[in-house]
């Protein structure tokens, strides 16, 4: 987790025109400053760095204009920047430079503006998360605790308290789990419900059988049960119409269908729209057909007509035994001319016969090819007829007698559908023309083929045949396009027309009933699918509810954990007290409203405690403890850093001991970097003493000149700071100042002795040695000098003894050392420190 | 700084959530799948679980139909 390695402040509140810098090396940094030396300025500088604001403005101001020009040092020269910069080791392990520059201070009406940069690039506060810094919600966004923010923690109303813990209690990431589960149902394709929709509409359209249809749609009946229900419904319709129902469902449905058609035909002949075939499937003859014809034409050229006629005769001659066995010239078996049938001639006859036989095969195939062409042309003609609506075949007389007229259609259609008639009419005309063209071409092709079939040898010139077929493919394509245009024009028109016809003929729902009755298995499938999907939806909804309940349970768990955490910090601060922090209370129906509960026990064992609202019963000191415990629970969970501005100022010594020991130790163990500001010098030294060996480091803030601003002195070893504090007094001419200086020098000498003794005991392996081992009478300079002398070089004891003898009793005016003497004592002590302390 | 650790907290929250769901339930299966899937693959993975459950329900209904028919 991130920690601050360096902090530089320039021009911010008490800080002057040159940057004041602190380098943090130890886990605990304790910074001492007297009143009005810049402690709060430093704390708020850190707030400003991370948030661009200071919580004090929101928590304490009663009017916006109170903070006018509050951030920029009032004495800062014009043009000098006001900024806070930190070197931060991020959660990525890298060092990042974070800098916020004040652009415009608060005015009477406006809040301040600033620029935040991370490694030189401008960012927003929310981008800090990329180096592991995540701010809390305002007003205590930064992990900085000051007296006024401490008060906020326990005095804020319960809802604001809840906001402070928002990110700890946050479970919004679980909302995405719930939403992911909730959205599954939408991703599952809905089951097919064509038939179920028909059942639903039929229930409305056919009130006399709606109860029967309702029984079909409830649960998952068997196919037999469905068929039985539709038989009942069909019987009811037929009986009501005065018909005698047939015995079987199939017959009953046919009766209903016939009755529907008859009744509807009286209104409008919808059957005129029936197309027996839906697609005009036809393919142009394959190239192989034309190849057969080409082959025939080639053979035709090879064999002359007379030879063709003699072929049968030659075949008989070649079968004669004398010819079959002949090896030499023989007499002609027909005209008996001697030796006229030479072997050469026999071979010539054999060749002629062979050519002629090949020709016959080609001729047969050519006849087949013509047959194929004929079939193709006929199919096109048939398709052109069957793919069209029946009314195409009706002549004018029949159309009039059937009532298939556009004016009647117009009367049946409502206002909205009526404009659809024109496009349908135009597409119909186009469709008819295309059909007529195809049929004419097909007939012409058929006639041409018939001519070639009558005399195959005409194929010697097949141009007319090819010419007859050539336009068919294009005509077919146009025809198919015309059908599509017609379908598109009819589609929006036909259902309103059917509905109107059904309504006018009082047959609404009858056609659906027939369709459903004939598809009981399909309906059973849809019912089963619907039931399966409904059950899945129910289970997913249940899963959603379970996730939601679990999410609330997680929130309660986290609440309990938070309460436990606050309690653990409380117990570190105020262990074993009869009045104690007991827990956090959730208000019913307002889960994010937090009450602090105090336990009031009759004894320090905290047993049999009565619970009260902490705000009502805790003392101010206890409230401060509660604020601290709350702050640590929020920010001290593990890692990171926090800044505390005099967190124990109002505490009794008893509680400060707990803070120094249990609390700081716990934070140290949790690897939390602590930067602590204090007014109390005892606190400052105590922490250094308790957390020595590099576990803590000390700084001092001084504001000697408001124009120069607060300066920072790193004085991890207290002795250096003490010696530094003596310096101004050594040059004073005032007697009282030199008296004070005597005491300070003597304190420095005692401190030097103690540190030397502890240092040497540590060297000897006594790890328990502490400065506090030398207190009371044993801590006086007179008692300490004999103990340190064994460690000193021969000329050194005199120096420390001189200090002992001359700085005590220093109260008497006539014995007060001179300025020079005090300077010598101070110089000796600095030398002793340098020579003997590491 | 603040000591929140968003990613860890997320994991913890979902782990806690799972702890409150009964093993073998559809909710538990879906949460397990959610945790095991990369964000971009979650919708498909969750849908697959639901479709598997739908198949189980279909099979159960078919068995029921067969049983009824036998009766």
Could you explain the architecture of this structure?
The complex is a heterodimer of chains A (838) and B (71). Among the domains of chain A are: 1-143 and 640-716, Rossmann fold; 287-504, no CATH class; 718-836, Four Helix Bundle (Hemerythrin (Met), subunit A) (Up-down Bundle), CATH 1.20.120. In chain A, 56% of the residues lie in helices and 11% in strands. Chain A is built from 29 helices and 15 strands. By secondary structure, chain B is mainly alpha-helical. Chain B is built from 3 helices and no strands. In chain B, helix 2 (26-36) packs antiparallel against helix 3. Chain B starts with 5 loop residues before the first helix and ends with a helix. Chains A and B meet through helix 6 and helix 20 of A and helix 1, helix 2 and helix 3 of B.
């Amino acid at each position: 987790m991130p920690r601050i390695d360096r902090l530089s402040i320039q021009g911010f509140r008490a800080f002057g025109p040159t940057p004041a810098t602190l380098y943090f090396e130890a886990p605990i940094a304790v910074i001492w400053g007297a009143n009005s030396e810049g402690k709060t300025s430093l704390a708020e500088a850190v707030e400003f760095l991370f948030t661009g604001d200071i919580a004090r403005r929101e928590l304490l101001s009663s009017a916006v204009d109170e903070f006018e020009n509050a951030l920029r040092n009032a004495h800062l020269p014009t043009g000098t920047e006001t900024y806070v910069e930190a070197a931060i080791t991020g959660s990525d392990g890298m060092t990042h430079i974070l800098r916020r520059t004040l652009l415009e201070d608060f005015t009477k009406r406006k809040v301040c503006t600033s620029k935040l940069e991370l490694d030189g690039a401008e960012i927003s506060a929310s981008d800090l998360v990329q180096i592991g810094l995540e701010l809390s919600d305002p007003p205590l966004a930064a992990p900085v605790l000051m007296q006024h923010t401490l008060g906020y923690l326990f005095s804020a109303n319960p809802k604001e308290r809840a906001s402070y813990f928002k990110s700890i209690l946050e479970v919004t990431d679980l909302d995405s789990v719930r939403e992911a589960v909730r959205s599954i149902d939408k991703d599952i394709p809905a089951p097919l419900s064509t038939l179920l929709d028909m059942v639903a509409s039929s229930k409305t359209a056919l009130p006399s059988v709606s109860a029967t249809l309702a029984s079909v749609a409830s649960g998952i009946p068997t196919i037999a049960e469905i068929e039985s229900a539709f038989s009942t419904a069909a019987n009811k319709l037929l009986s009501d119409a005065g018909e005698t129902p047939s015995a079987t469902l199939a017959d009953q449905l046919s009766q209903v269908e016939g009755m529907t058609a008859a009744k509807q035909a009286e209104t409008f002949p919808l059957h005129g729209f029936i197309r027996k075939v839906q697609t005009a499937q036809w393919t142009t003859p394959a190239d192989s057909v034309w190849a057969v014809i080409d082959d025939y034409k080639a053979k035709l050229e090879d064999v002359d007509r007379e030879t063709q006629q003699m072929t049968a005769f030659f075949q008989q001659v070649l079968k004669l035994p004398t010819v079959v066995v002949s090896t030499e010239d023989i007499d002609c078996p027909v005209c008996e001319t001697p030796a006229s049938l030479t072997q050469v001639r026999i071979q010539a006859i054999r060749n002629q016969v062979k050519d002629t036989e090949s020709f016959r095969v080609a001729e047969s195939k050519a006849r087949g090819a013509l047959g194929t062409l004929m079939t193709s042309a006929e199919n096109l003609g048939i398709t052109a007829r069957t793919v069209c609506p029946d009314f195409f075949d009706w002549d004018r007389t029949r159309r009039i007698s059937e009532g298939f007229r556009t004016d009647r259609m117009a009367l049946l259609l409502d206002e909205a559908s009526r404009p659809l008639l024109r496009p349908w009419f135009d597409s119909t005309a186009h469709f008819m023309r295309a059909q007529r063209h195809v049929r004419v071409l097909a007939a012409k092709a058929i006639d041409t083929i018939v001519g070639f079939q009558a005399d195959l040898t005409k194929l010697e010139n097949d141009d007319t045949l090819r010419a007859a077929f050539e336009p068919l493919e294009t005509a077919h394509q146009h025809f198919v396009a015309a059908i599509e245009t017609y379908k598109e024009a009819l589609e929006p028109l036909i259902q309103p027309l059917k509905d109107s016809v059904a309504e006018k003929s009082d047959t609404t729902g009858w056609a659906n009933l027939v369709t459903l009755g004939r598809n009981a298995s399909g309906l059973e499938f849809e019912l089963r699918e619907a039931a399966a999907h409904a059950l899945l939806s129910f289970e997913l909804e249940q899963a959603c509810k379970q996730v939601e309940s679990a999410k609330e349970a997680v929130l309660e768990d986290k609440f309990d954990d938070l309460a436990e955490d606050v309690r653990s910090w409380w117990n570190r601060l105020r262990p074993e007290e009869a009045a104690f922090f007991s827990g956090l209370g959730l208000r019913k129906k307002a889960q994010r409203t937090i009450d602090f509960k105090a336990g009031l026990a009759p004894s320090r064992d905290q047993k049999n405690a009565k619970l009260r609202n902490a705000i009502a019963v805790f003392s101010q000191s206890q409230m401060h403890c509660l604020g601290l415990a709350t702050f640590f629970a929020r920010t001290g969970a593990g890692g990171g850093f926090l800044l505390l501005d005099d967190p124990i100022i109002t505490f009794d010594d008893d509680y400060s001991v707990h803070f120094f020991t249990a609390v700081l130790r716990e934070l140290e163990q949790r690897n939390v970097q602590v930067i602590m500001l204090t007014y109390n010098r005892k606190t400052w030294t105590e922490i250094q003493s308790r957390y020595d060996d590099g576990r803590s480091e000390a700084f001092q803030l001084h504001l000697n000149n408001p124009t120069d601003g607060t300066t920072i002195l790193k004085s991890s070893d207290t002795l250096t700071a003490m010696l530094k504090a003596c310096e101004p007094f050594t040059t004073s001419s005032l007697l009282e100042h030199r008296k004070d200086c005597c005491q300070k020098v003597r304190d420095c000498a005692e401190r030097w002795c103690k540190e030397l003794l502890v240092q040497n005991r540590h060297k000897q392996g006594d790890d328990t040695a502490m400065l506090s081992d030398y207190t009371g009478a044993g801590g006086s300079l007179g008692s300490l000098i004999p103990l340190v002398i064994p460690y000193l070089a021969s000329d050194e004891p005199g120096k420390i003894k001189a200090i002992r003898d001359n700085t005590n009793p220093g109260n008497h005016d006539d014995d007060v050392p001179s300025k020079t003497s005090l300077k010598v004592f101070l110089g000796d002590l600095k030398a002793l420190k340098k020579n003997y302390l590491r | 700084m603040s000591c929140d650790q968003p990613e860890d907290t997320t994991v913890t929250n979902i782990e806690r959530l799972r702890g409150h769901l009964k093993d073998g339930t559809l909710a538990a299966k879906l949460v397990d799948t959610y945790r095991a899937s990369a964000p971009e693959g979650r919708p498909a993975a969750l849908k697959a679980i639901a479709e598997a459950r739908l198949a189980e329900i279909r099979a159960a209904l078919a068995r029921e139909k067969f049983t009824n028919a036998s009766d």
